[in-house]
Design goal:
Largest sheet: 6 strands, mixed
Order of helices and strands: HEEEEEEEEEEEEHHH
Structural class: alpha+beta
Radius of gyration: 30 Å
Shape: elongated
């Protein structure tokens, strides 16, 4: 008894090969994206629910005297109701920062009414940055022990048009103040806590361009001073020249701007497009000359 073997036709083999290549490409993209998210190029997000590492124990009262605060640190300050409190933290491209503040109010027996508190965030050019969502302004009842505020900023872009107000890499100032308070409660002691965390949003918010310098007050002057420090005269002037705030730069430095996980998706998309082109050609080119047709016909 003769056994017949069924062989797959040419188009079927091509379809199977294309399906296998497609699945391999998708798995490659998935693993590459996961590696990019877990790799050192991605900014590790800080635990938002944790207390954070110990930070400064005071706050500034103006933009110029703002206290430097690194992301993940918990800054505290003792102040009086009615004071303006300022902190400054660095934010790099691709980061979506969340600012959280907590105000410990005086004992209810010493207060004479409700109060309204607010946090405002400004970039290195002192442009006010809007909150995407959060509790930027909150009212505390007369018997409340504390009030908590939050502000989720827009994702920082590596570059933007000069006329736009998009958040850019650099320093960000946080101002905590009271908007409405009984006059008799001005000067009562309060406690303030500030913490900033961020998550890396990846290549979805990447743009083609980078800033020559981050928006950190004094960074350009400090760079010029360091470039001309070879002369003795310039070295003497450097001693009294401008200095960048210690909190004006992330712990791991500013991102270079050329690498992004969009390179992985672009390369993977190119591979899949090439496979699709080969598959489409195999379907449209036909099976060639039939065997029953003699050559030359």
């Amino acid at each position: 008894m003769r056994r017949t073997h069924h062989r797959a036709s040419g188009p079927d083999r091509v379809k199977r090969a294309f399906a296998g290549a497609l699945l391999a490409g998708l798995s490659l993209l998935t693993s590459a994206g996961a590696a990019a998210a877990d790799g050192p190029s991605a900014t590790a997000s800080t635990d938002e629910d944790g207390a954070g590492t110990a930070g400064p124990t005071e706050a500034g009262t103006t933009f110029r005297t703002a206290t430097s605060l690194q992301q993940g640190q918990r800054g505290t300050a003792d102040a009086s109701a009615g004071d303006y409190l300022y902190w400054v933290f660095p934010a790099d491209a691709g980061q979506r920062a969340t600012v959280r503040a907590r105000v410990t109010l005086p004992e209810s027996a010493t207060r004479h009414g409700a109060s309204t508190w607010q946090i405002d965030v400004y970039d290195g050019l002192r442009r006010r940055q809007a909150c995407m969502y959060g509790h930027q302004t909150r009212k505390a009842a007369a018997d409340a022990a504390s009030v908590e505020l939050s502000c989720v900023l827009r994702t920082v872009r590596a570059w933007s048009e000069p006329w736009a107000d998009d958040p850019l890499p650099g320093s960000y100032y946080v101002r905590l103040t009271v908007l409405n308070l009984p006059a008799t409660d001005l000067g009562l002691p309060i406690g303030a806590e500030m913490k900033v965390t961020s998550v890396d949003k990846g290549g979805a918010h990447d743009v083609d361009g980078t800033l020559s310098e981050p928006l950190v007050p004094g960074v350009s002057l400090a760079r010029q001073a360091s470039d001309g420090s070879s002369d003795d005269a310039s070295s003497d002037s450097d001693a009294s020249g401008p200095r960048v705030s210690p909190g004006g730069e992330p712990d791991d430095g500013w991102s270079s701007g050329w690498w992004t996980d969009r390179w992985l998706w672009t390369a993977g998309g190119g591979v899949l497009a090439a496979l699709a082109a080969v598959f489409g050609y195999s379907l449209t080119r036909g099976g060639g000359r039939p065997s029953r047709v003699p050559p030359g016909v």
